[in-house]
C-alpha cells in the first residue's frame, strides 16, 4: 500500500502509522477481521524496509504481523517481463505467522512466498484452516503459475486458500496479473475476481475442511 | 506389476526376481534407461511387502531402487470411490532416491507420494532434473488433483515431471484415472496420454531447465 510511483523507502512507515490506523478503523467500522497486505515498514538503522502485512481484529487491534520471508530477485526479461531486485530495498522477515481467530487459524504469506511449499507445510503443522496470499504477480508468471500453485497449496495442505491480487496496469512499466482466487480444501475454485477492482464475497464451509481431512488424512501421513 | 486379481503377498518377489530380470532384459535390448514402477518386493520375516521401483541402466544393471514412503490409507466412499488400506499390506520405505544418469539426476516417487511436497524438495536439493511419479490414481482424486499437483511439483522445483499412469478399468471394483503427463520445468504440459494403453515419446530440452533456473532462481531463495 503506497501511492503509485512513490519510492518504497519514502513510503515506509512504522507499525502504528497512518496505514495501520486506516486498517484498524476499517476493521472496527465494519466489525471484521481484516488482513492488510502489504505496506513498507520502516526499520530503525536500516536503509531497507520490511514488506509487512497486518491482521486486524474487529476491535481494530493488531492480531498478527507477517514480514515477507522470500524476496523476489528475478529476471523475466527473456519472456518479455521486468527485472526485479527486491533485496535491494527490502529486508526479509524470518518468522512464520499463523494467527488464531474464532473461525480457525490463518496462515499469512505474500506473493513470491507461494513458490515455497515448505512455508505452507509449517502453517498446516500449526493447524491453519486458511492460507492467505495477497499478491501482485507479474503477468508472465501469473498466466502459467498463479492458479496452479494456489490450488496445489490448498490440496496438499487441505485448507482454504484466500488470494487477493492486484490487477491491471499500474504505470507504463508495471502491470499485475490479478485474478484473485478463493479455493476450497479439495482444490476447487470457489470464486475468481474479474479483471478490475472488485469485492469478492465467499462462504467458506469449515465442515468441508473436516470432511476432506477425515476422508483423505494426508496431513497425518507425513513422514519427511 | 502383477497379474490383476492376484493378492499382493502372493505376487511378491525379491529384487533380482523375474520382474527385475524382465526389466533388465528390456533395458538391455533397447539400450535405454528404464524405470519400472512398481512391484511387490518380499521382505524376509515380514508379512508385509515393499512397494518398489527399480531404475535399470542400458546394460540392465540396477542403478537405483525406491521403496514407496507414503502409504495410501484413505476412504473415498463419500465421493463414490473405494476404501484403501495400503498399510495393511505394505511396509513403508524410508529413503529418498535420486539416481545419477548421463542426462541428469532422476528423483523417484510413486503415486500418493505426490501429495507430499517435502519429498520433491529433497530431490531438488539433490539437484534432480527429472521427478518421476509412476501412478495409479483413483478416478475421484485424479480428476481434481492429478494434473495440478504434478504441474506444481514441476514449477516449484523447476524440473521435468514424468508421470506415467495406469488407466482404464482393471476389474469390477477398480479403475485408474490415467492421463499420463510429461511436464516441463516452467509447468507446461509437453505431452498427455490418451485414455488407453499407449507410448508417449517426448524430447526434454535440458537447456530449458537451465533457462528457467537462471531467470527465476527460486531454488536458491529457499529460507525455511
Characterization of the model:
2 copies of one chain form a homodimer. Helices cover 26% and strands 27% of the residues of chain A. Chain A contains 6 helices and 13 strands. The first copy, chain A, has helices at residues 8-11, 18-30, 86-89, 117-125, 139-157, 206-215; strands spanning 34-42, 49-56, 62-67, 73-75, 83-85, 97-99, 105-108, 128-132, 160-163, 167-171, 174-177, 181-183, 189-192. The longest helix of chain A has 19 residues, at 139-157. Chain A is globular and about 50 Å long. Chain A binds chain B through residues 69-71, 73-79, 92, 94, 96, 112, 115-119, 121-122, 141, 144-145, 148-149, 151-152, 155-156, 186-188, 211, 214-218, 221-224, and chain B through 69-71, 73-79, 92, 94, 96, 112, 115-119, 121-122, 141, 144-145, 148-149, 151-152, 155-156, 186-188, 211, 214-218, 221-224.
